[in-house]
Amino acid sequence: MNLPPLDSARARSIVSRFANRHVLVVGDVMIDRFIVGTVTRISPEAPVPVVKFQSEHSRLGGAANVAHNIAALGAKVTLVGIVGADATAARLREQLEAAGLSSAGLVEDPTRPTVEKVRIIAGRNQQVARIDYEEDRDVTGDAEARLCECVARLGEHADVLLVSDYLKGSVTRAVMATLLTLKQKGAPLLVDPKIPHLECYRGATLVTPNNHEAEVATHRLIRTDADAQAAALDFRARAGCESVLITRGEHGMWLSSEVVEGAVPATAREVADVTGAGDTVVATLALAMAAGGSLSEAAVLANHAAGVVVAKFGPATVTPHELIAALHEGR
Question: Which of 22, 116, 123, 204 allows an S-S link to 76, with CB 3.0 to 4.6 Å?
Fold first, then answer.
C-alpha cells in the first residue's frame, strides 16, 4: 500500500514555511574531494588504470552536506561537529562560509584529522578509487565535553534536531543523551543512522536506515514491500524509536509509525550519482516536520527531493523551486 500523494497546494504551504524554521544538525562533518581525469591505458607498473588529471574540486560532505541542504531549502541551520587542527578544517570552514553557514559549532580536536574522502573519477562519473583521511574512534575527554556543551547551547531553541551519523566519532552516547534531553522540550529528533550505534538512538522520533542497514539490524532480507513492512516493525522495536523510514533506492521508501504506514514509490527518472542522497532525504524530512507537515507528507517531499539530487553529480542540494517542480512533474 502506498502513502497518499501530496496535494500541490499543501506542498507549497509546507515549503513556504521552511524559511521560518531552525534546524540543529549534529554529526560527522567532512570534505568530499573529487579528482577528475580520463583513462586511456593501464599502468606498466601494476594492473591499474592511469588517470590523466583534468580537474579537481571539493564539496561539503556528511553532516556538513545535510546542513548545506537545509540552508539551500531556505531554513536557518546550526551545525555541530568535530574537526582537526589542519588545512582540511580550514577549507571546510571556507566552504561553509561560502554556503552561508556558520562554523561556530565546530569543535577542534588536534588529536584527529578532519574527515576527508578523496574520490578519483574517470569517464562517465566512474569512481576508480577512494582515499579516506579519518580517525573513526569516538571522540572522548575534553573534546566530547565541548561537543556536548555546543549541542546543549546551540540547540536550545531549535525547531528540530537532526543527527547525521557516519561512524566517524562525533556521535557518542553522551552526545545522544544531550540531544534526547533537548527532545524533551518538544523538538523532534531525527537520526540518519549507522547500525553499530543503534542502541544510542533509543528514544528518537524518526530513524532513517537504508535498505542494507535495515537488513543488518533486523536480520531480514528486504526485497518486497511486505518484507519492508515486517523489517520496519522489527527495526522500531530494536532501535526503540517512534518511527522509521527505510530508504530503498530504486524501490522508493517504506514509512512505519504508530499512526501511518506505507510505501513511497521512487521518483528519480535519471540517476547520475547517489552520493549524499540520504543527506538530502533527512534534511527535507526534518524541515517538512518542523514546518508542520505530517510524517507521511514529510516522507513524500523527501522522496521527491532525493529524486532531484540523484540526477546531479556528487553531494548536491535541492532548492524549494526544484522541490515543488519535481512534485508537480511526479503527479
Answer: 22
Q: What is the DSSP string of 62-109?
A: EHHHHHHHHHHTT-EEEEEEEE-SSHHHHHHHHHHHHTT---TTEEE-
Q: Which residue has the cell 539490524?
A: 217
pLDDT tens figures, 267-296: 756 655 566 688 899 999 999 999 999 999
Q: Is the pLDDT of residue 18 over 60?
A: yes
**Nearest residue to 250 (alpha-carbon basis) of 233, 274, 226, 229:** 274
Q: Where are the alpha helices (DSSP H) in the chain?
A: 8-16, 63-72, 87-98, 141-154, 173-183, 211-218, 225-239, 277-290, 295-309, 320-329
Q: What is the pLDDT of residues 209-235, one digit of tens each?
A: 999 999 999 999 999 999 999 999 999
Question: What's the grid cell of residue 204?
Answer: 528518537
Task: Single out the residue of 189, 211, 214 nearest to residue 200, CA to CA.
Answer: 189
Active site residue: 32, 109, 159, 279, which one? Answer: 279
Cβ-count burial of 225 within 10 angstroms (0-12 exposed, 13-18 middle, 19+ buried)? middle
Half-sphere exposure of 24 (CA within 13 A, CB side): 27
Q: Which domains does the chain have, with CATH numbers?
A: 8-31+60-114+135-329 (3.40.1190.20)
Q: What is the pTM of this model?
A: 0.92
- Angular region, 27: left φ>0, alpha ψ -120 to 50, beta rest: left
User: What are the grid coordinates assigned to 196, written together?
Assistant: 553499530
330-to-8, 9, 192, 297, 323 alpha-carbon distances in Å: 11, 15, 25, 15, 11
Query: Is residue 225 annotated as part of the catalytic site, yes or no?
Result: no
Q: What is the DSSP string of 182-199?
A: HHTTT--EEEE--GGGGG
Cα 30–chain centre separation: 12
pLDDT on residue 23: 97
Mind listing the pLDDT tens digit for each residue in 94-107? 999 999 999 999 99
Give every CB contact of residue 47 below 8 A, 6+ residues apart in sequence.
none
